[in-house]
């Protein structure tokens, strides 16, 4: 009997390591597979299973473990564990999954200036008939399906979320182009020193600024 207890403890340890490891195929393979994986007899395996409290090992616990295992296991094709994927890895993963034989055809380049479609619900105000009056710059682009873009405003503040190509319209605005003024908020100075503090059409109050009165047309 003294020699039997150490053996039972060893059986318990071996089978627990397999049976409760959701990454181990034999953990869901029945008595035969569990016996083979543990190098123990089916009789020993069956006896051990009969002593387990099956109600204590809930399906939700198994699912959590499976998801955790999947999210933290390196994918053989992408070379990344899903939980470890960063935004900057998306392009590399896309090419690994779909290949690079067909070059991705982006409609916009990084640095392009665009307007946003009025159908997009944003926190910005001011719209032309179909497009926002405020102009944004393409900051990043992603080979997602469909292709998406990240934008920034003229203060280099990144807009929340990503935008699809149909939601954007490329614009060409020269450095000396005129911007429309919504209203003059206050005035200071006289003559050539006269200035107006203005709110720009289509821009929020962060962009209010002083301009020379003579610059206004």
TrEMBL record:
Residues 179-217 form the Chromo domain. One of its GO terms (cellular component) is chromosome. Gene3D superfamilies: 2.40.50.40. SUPFAM superfamilies: Chromo domain-like (SSF54160). Coiled coil: none annotated. This is Uncharacterized transposon-derived protein F54H12.3.
């Amino acid at each position: 009997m003294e020699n039997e207890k150490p053996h039972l403890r060893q059986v318990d340890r071996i089978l627990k390591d397999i049976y409760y490891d959701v990454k181990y195929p034999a953990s869901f393979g029945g008595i035969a597979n569990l016996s083979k994986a543990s190098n123990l007899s089916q009789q020993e395996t069956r006896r051990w299973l009969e002593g387990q409290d099956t109600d204590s090992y809930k399906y939700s616990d198994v699912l959590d473990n499976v998801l955790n295992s999947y999210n933290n296991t390196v994918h053989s094709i992408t070379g990344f564990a899903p939980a470890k994927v960063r935004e900057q890895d998306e392009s590399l993963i896309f090419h690994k999954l779909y290949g690079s034989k067909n070059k991705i055809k982006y409609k916009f380049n990084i640095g392009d200036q665009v307007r946003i479609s009025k159908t997009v619900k944003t926190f910005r105000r001011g719209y032309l008939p179909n497009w926002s009056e405020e102009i944004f710059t393409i900051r990043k682009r992603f080979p997602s399906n469909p292709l998406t873009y990240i934008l920034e405003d003229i203060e280099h503040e990144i807009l929340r979320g990503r935008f699809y190509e149909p939601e954007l319209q490329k614009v060409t605005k020269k450095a000396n182009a005129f911007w429309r003024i919504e209203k003059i908020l206050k005035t200071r100075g006289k003559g050539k020193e006269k200035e107006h503090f203005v709110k720009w059409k289509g821009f929020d109050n962060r962009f209010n600024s002083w301009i020379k009165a003579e610059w206004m047309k």
